């Protein structure tokens, strides 16, 4: 886990994972989503809770769309966002790393670590560095109007690709982003 990741979030995540492991067995129909999806969702929601936002819900349709794009990227050994017409208005976060080296928690933690450079403002002017791309994964996660997420990975010989899709999409140009305030358009 990156050292810049807040300890309180890591401690809460560890507690959540221990609680889930100790939970009594229930019929499979009542468990949604399964691992690693449950970890991805929990990691997103811990980040949102830190800034006072409502939790996201898991959306299997978004996860299927994310899986389609992850497979596309892994098979072609490329890395880039899906065209807007393919995303159908969905937001998208991408990650790529060495195959079998990162846990589901670490993948999302790398998105959330961008919090260090985030500052409230009117999108895209939301980064201490002056480059919104330095915080774009994090801002999508904490976008107040986003309600649902679905993520999936795909593998090739060397890499693992994670794609997360969001509904409604965040990172909307000209929209003020301050989790302490309501989301407003300029």
Describe this structure in words.
By secondary structure, the chain is an alpha+beta fold. Helices cover 35% and strands 18% of the residues. It contains six helices and seven strands, in the order ααβααβαβαββββ. The protein has helices spanning 7-22, 37-50, 60-76, 84-87, 104-112, 136-141; strands at residues 57-58, 91-98, 121-122, 148-155, 159-167, 175-177, 184-185. The strands form two sheets. Strands 1-4-5-2 form a four-stranded mixed beta sheet. Strand 4 (148-155) and strand 5 (159-167) form a beta hairpin. The chain is globular. Residues 1-6 and 13-32 have low confidence and may be disordered.
Strand content: 15-25%
> What summary fits the major beta sheet?
4 strands, mixed
SSE order: HHEHHEHEHEEEE
- The shape is globular
Strand order of the largest sheet: 1-4-5-2
- Give the helix/strand class: alpha+beta
Low-confidence stretches: 1-6, 13-32
Helix fraction, binned, reads 25-40%
